[in-house]
Amino acid sequence: xxxxxxxxxxxLLCAGAFIACKRSIVITISNPQEGKLHATHSLVENGEKVxxxxxxxxxxxxxxxxxxxxxxxxxxxxxxxxxxxYLYDYNxxxxxxxxxxxxxxMKPGAYYIVNEDSVYVLDxxxxxxxxxxxxxxxxxxxxxxxxxxxxxxxxxxxxxxLFTSNPIIKIGDELIMTGQxxxxxxxxxxxxxxxxxxxxxxxxxxxxxxxxxxxxxxNDSNWEGGHQTAPHATVSPDGNLVYSFPPSHDLxxxxxxxxxxxxxxxxxxxxxxxSSIDYQNKEETPKDIISENYVMQDMYGPIIYDQYRSVxxxxxxxKVTDKQKSNSVPDKEINIVIMDKDFQYLGxxxxxxxxxxxxxxxxxxxxxxxxxxLSPENLDEDHMVxxxxxxx
Amino acid sequence: xxxxxxxxFCLLLFLTLLFYSCNSERQKEIDFIDNVLSxxxxxxxxxxxxxxxxxxxxxxxxxxxxxxxxHVSDKTIGFVLTNxxxxxxxxxxxxxxxxxxxxxxxxxxxxxxxETENSIYPCVVEIKDHHVASLEFQSPQTPxxxxxxxxxxx
Lengths: 392, 154
Prior knowledge:
The complex is a heterodimer of chains A (392) and B (154). Chain A has 392 residues and is mainly beta. Chain A contains four helices and 26 strands. Chain B has one domain: Glutaredoxin (3-Layer(aba) Sandwich), CATH 3.40.30.
């Protein structure tokens, strides 16, 4: 009798442990201003820029930089296929030149053009920042991003998914790269894991800074998948870093070497509550649950400061309400929240969804906010198109 | 003796649960592809479907692209290119003009991306009577494309 009872309890325990997805600590972030904000401004599409591509380059370039070289407004992009940076005259649309890295850089992921002699290139394969001299067609310096960590550096140091609207940032004599952990932040690492890399251009010193805010990512909360733990950064006019975390209606402001944040509201009038994933065994969270958490909720994206108009643009990827299996990130409608330099709400504009707009390729020029437009007619992929939005 | 029985019982229970777990994941993938195929009836006429993602396990995807180049003229196989970053670059890499091959389908809606950890691998789908009979992923552990080649050679 005792044996039977023992077996029954054992079966119940095993089955219970296997079947039940135990509830985790769920963090819910409310939007105190939902439906209460008043818009005075909006963004209006006004003109486009078209750049003709050669036979080995395609739209949706993985990284771009708008900068001035030799007095010209230059739009550059990274071609991963042939390991090159293409440079275009932004105003005329002409190809000005190509920087080819050859075999010096195994897997370029991002770059920062300082001038015609100096380009810092993030090599994702070697995990270093290489200083490349296009004129000499040679690398002149290498800074390792692995720090002093051993083989387990990917779980101790940030990894980088940089793009045009979350770029390598230069403040003074330092380059800042905003990285991330690609899974939930363990409670024991919330005050020790730094997601941002700060590299001294002259000193070559590497320092990791800025922790995930505990109110968003603490308590061993489940934010699996990589999207939800991706901070996006821009620079304020006074040289501070402004971080946009996907689940937060607030913005987190800090100085490059500071270890605390000033929090300001920077949310959307349309965004609702955002919750972490309700699944205890984080490492085993099914992909469809992770995807649903990101797609079926409002989530914030990049933030860009417009120095010509003294406003911030913060992207919101709105929740998909139609519960279809095929719903994915590109199905999310995109809002652009506009704030003044003091983060006061000015308004917001819906531009469409990710099937037509690539917000990873968004940047500021004197004309306005440029966003890559994915034209359904561009089947031959022979052009890269940007729509220019103006503040009204 | 009683302890041995207890251990055997626990082991059996563990293996049963493990089998159930793996099987349910595979069944979920089969049901998913079967459901997508019902909306792409023309693709269910092939004996095999090879689904190649554009993003994921680099080496596995390269094997998929090589397989595509080698077997594109085999009309029993339909090729589905999903999660594509650029068809133009894919054409450069494979040397194929995709429009010239009726058995290549560009899944621009990303309908064929399975929502499991296996979405990063090329997938070989066996079709019988317009439904998925079985599927296998080309991963570092499972040589699905080589298995298909061997089957085709028989």
